[in-house]
């Protein structure tokens, strides 16, 4: 849930910087809608992973492997499905409110999010090499959608939020797939770690980290984001640690856990600091 809060914050901060606009009511609705969307996505994923028996096979870590609520019988699958559906309905109602006066800039974003949320586990995760892209861009569009609800347009500053958020969230899922690869493969999933192998995927992960910081530097160079967003680069040492551990321990589950922890920190802190950078620039 902190991930959603930070992504929404980045979208709001960027729109305030670029357009000097902030509507507290719309901002509150966006945050609630985003949290409902994220909750529904997690619940649906848990439900479908239970149905496919993936969660019964994965090695559990604090960052991967799913959760045991359904596997251990602590909640009925039907209750989980009802909770996810209720969250989806709440998010849809908020989405309808924004579509009523921002239909054209938001419709495709909302449609993409709806498809990704409902079909990720049962369908999209089984399409070769799209899992990470769907997850990353889904949250990237959350940031861009937030920006649009305030700025009323899609422009280069909104894209400067979308790109690094998409890469970072894609990397969050990507590294978490390493311990789950065997169970995922047995259940029909075809993500990049399965297709490329863990050794190659470790280097792809490092490339993704580099791409994140390059995208931030490019957004500043192209004047899409202010120079104060450079503050987000302070997470580079944590990213270096995550990459180094991954390269050395890509096929060792327990030894990879510190990389999973560092990866979470990189994703959360970088997005939060992007938001901070936009806020600072707004008052300089």
Describe the structure.
This protein has 284 residues and is mostly helical. The protein has one domain (2-282): Farnesyl Diphosphate Synthase, CATH 1.10.600. 73% of the residues lie in helices and 0% in strands. The chain is built from eleven helices and no strands. The chain has helices at 2-19, 24-51, 77-99, 103-119, 131-151, 156-176, 181-186, 192-196, 198-221, 236-249, 253-282. α6 packs antiparallel against α9 (198-221) and α10 packs antiparallel against α11 (253-282). The radius of gyration is 19 Å and the shape is globular.
Q: Compute the number of strand runs.
A: 0
Total domain count: 1
What radius of gyration results from the CA coordinates? 19 Å
Mean pLDDT: 91
Broad CATH class? Mainly Alpha
Helical percentage: over 70%
Shape designation = globular
The span between the termini is 30 Å
Low-confidence stretches: none
The CATH architecture assignment turns out to be Orthogonal Bundle
Strand content of the residues, in percent? under 5%
CATH level-3 fold name: Farnesyl Diphosphate Synthase
Major sheet: none
User: In oligomeric terms, what are we looking at?
Assistant: single chain
How many alpha or pi helices?
11
Broad structural category: mainly alpha
Order of helices and strands, N to C?
HHHHHHHHHHH
């Amino acid at each position: 849930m902190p991930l959603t809060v930070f992504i929404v914050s980045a979208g709001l901060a960027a729109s305030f910087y670029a357009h000097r606009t902030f509507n507290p009511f719309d901002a509150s609705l966006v945050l609630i809608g985003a949290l409902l969307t994220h909750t529904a996505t997690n619940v649906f994923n848990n439900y479908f992973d239970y149905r496919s028996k993936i969660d019964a096979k994965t090695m559990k870590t604090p960052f991967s492997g799913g959760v045991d609520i359904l596997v251990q019988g602590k909640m009925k699958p039907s209750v989980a499905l009802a909770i996810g559906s209720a969250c989806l309905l709440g998010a849809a109602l908020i989405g309808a409110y924004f579509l009523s006066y921002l239909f054209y800039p938001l419709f495709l974003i909302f449609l993409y999010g709806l498809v990704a949320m409902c079909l990720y586990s049962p369908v999209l995760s089984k399409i070769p090499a799209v899992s990470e892209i769907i997850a990353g861009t889904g949250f990237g569009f959350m940031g861009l959608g937030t920006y649009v609800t305030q700025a009323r347009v899609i422009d280069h500053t909104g894209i400067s939020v979308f790109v690094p958020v998409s890469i970072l969230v894609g990397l969050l899922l990507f590294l978490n797939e390493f311990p789950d690869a065997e169970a995922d493969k047995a259940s029909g999933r075809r993500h990049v770690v399965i297709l490329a192998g863990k050794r190659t995927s470790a280097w792809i992960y490092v490339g993704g980290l580099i791409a994140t910081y390059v995208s931030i530097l490019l957004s500043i160079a192209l004047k899409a984001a202010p120079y104060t967003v450079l503050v987000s680069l302070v997470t580079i040492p944590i990213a270096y640690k995550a990459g180094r551990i991954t390269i050395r321990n890509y096929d060792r589950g327990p030894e990879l856990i510190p990389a999973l922890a560092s990866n979470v920190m990189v994703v959360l802190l970088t997005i939060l600091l992007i938001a901070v950078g936009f806020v600072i620039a707004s008052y300089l």
